[in-house]
Write a structure and sequence with these properties.
- Helices cover 44% and strands 0% of the residues.
- It has seven helices and no strands.
- The protein is mainly α.
- It has a domain at 77-142.
- InterPro entries: Ribosomal_mS35_mt (IPR039848).
- This is 28S ribosomal S35, mitochondrial isoform X1.
Length: 143
């Protein structure tokens, strides 16, 4: 019931201030995101060793989940299970820490673009399906 009052208050405030519906939806989304995040406990898959001081409760809750690119052991991955044929790079399928292309505005010393949404990585088909274990497996299947 209290949540409805707050939403009604925010809606009335948005109307009085002359805000459009997009601003109201942003407020509404932020409100629900705060309430849902506090109600549902999060269980991370892997926690790094960076911990805060043991006395502070708020610092205990702040932890860093390592990116999947850091957790992925490249030598132990069965690449043909990810890529059965030659295809373009998909950062959601195999998040490798790749950068390719030029930096924006030709800045000297700038980093190339990230792998997410990078057109340069989409142009080149990868050959993860032709790793030596995959070729051996394919030859055994043909015999």
């Amino acid at each position: 019931m209290a949540a409805n009052r707050v939403l009604f208050f925010r809606f009335k405030t948005a109307q009085y201030l002359g805000k459009n519906s997009l601003d109201f939806l942003c407020i509404l989304r932020r409100f629900y995101a705060q309430n849902v995040a506090s109600a549902v406990p999060q269980k991370p898959t892997e926690i790094s060793q960076e911990r805060a001081a043991p006395g502070n409760e708020q610092n205990k809750r702040k932890f860093r989940i390592r990116p999947k690119a850091e957790r992925l052991d490249i030598d132990k991955v069965d690449w043909p299970s990810f890529y059965s044929t030659a295809s373009s790079y998909n950062s959601w399928l195999v998040p490798l820490p790749l950068r390719m292309g030029r930096s924006r505005h030709n800045k000297v010393g700038g980093l190339p673009l990230r792998d997410m949404g990078n057109i340069e990585l989409l142009k080149i088909p990868n050959f993860f399906h032709l790793t030596p274990p995959a070729i051996e497996r394919h030859c055994e299947a043909l015999k």
